[in-house]
Amino acid sequence: MGLVRPSLKQLCCGLAIALFLASPLWATDDNCRAVTAELGSHITEYLAQRIVSESGGIPSILSSNKVPGTCYQKLVIHVSGTSNPMTLYLSPDQRFLTSTLYDLSADPKEEAERIAANAERLLTRDDSPRLPGRDPHVTLVEFGDLQCPYCKRFADWYRSLPVELRNETTLIFKHLPLAQHPWAQLAAQYSACANQQSPAAFWELANYLLAHQGEITAANVKDEAIRAASQVPSINPVLLASCATGELGPALVERDTTVAKELAVSRTPTLFINGRRAPLLHSEEDLRLLLERELKGSPARVGTAGQ
Hints:
The protein is α+β, with helices and mostly antiparallel strands. It has helices at residues 8-13, 16-22, 37-51, 108-124, 149-160, 163-167, 184-197, 199-211, 221-229, 237-245, 248-262, 284-295; strands at residues 2-3, 59-66, 73-79, 86-90, 97-98, 130-131, 138-144, 169-175, 267-268, 270-273, 276-277.
């Protein structure tokens, strides 16, 4: 199973419903407890202990604002070493932090569409590797790890889909090398750099690494990547090695892992379909049905992808 330690967002998210049940939703300003400097220090110290095992970053509160009509406080928090702040909500009794508040006064369909649109913009804003169909109506984003056996399985499923279905789908790959896989990070750097030379080259190199997972080790992954790249006319192996082992390769991978953290993704493969997190898939048939339902305008129920 491709699995990492749950992120802070995931740990907090499960508290959302309990917070609403246990705390008053609506209150006047006079009834709300303020976020004092002492409380702010306590929050950052607490988060530092939770985050340090994941990134080593130091958190700081950028802003604190009351959610209108409630006593919940919206905290925008920066963690050193990351490019995007996180948002957490402090409960009225100042005991709980959560990354999600469900507003029951909002239209759930409109809310889901808004969240999906925001996620879609985040997932498609950069030049991550794409495998576009001829007439795409669906965008499928995979957070993957090239050493993950389940990612290899997903790649096999996708290639086996009917041609007409792939023609209506754009597949985007985002790197999420897992800590328990010793050569995944380097594989990600080499394949990310291959994409800088040629998008088609990325898929050739990535497919090679996935197909030869059993033969690759932390000791030979560089040689294997260069050997495979040498067979691809659009790749310059010298430039590839320079990129992968220099500053750009790790930066390209970090760009994707930062997005994964923002979306609370910690497993591979995790899929997003038109901005919505896809449900768990167990077979090629599940993948085919997922895409067919989306194309018919009946999105699958949101769940957690990854095995």
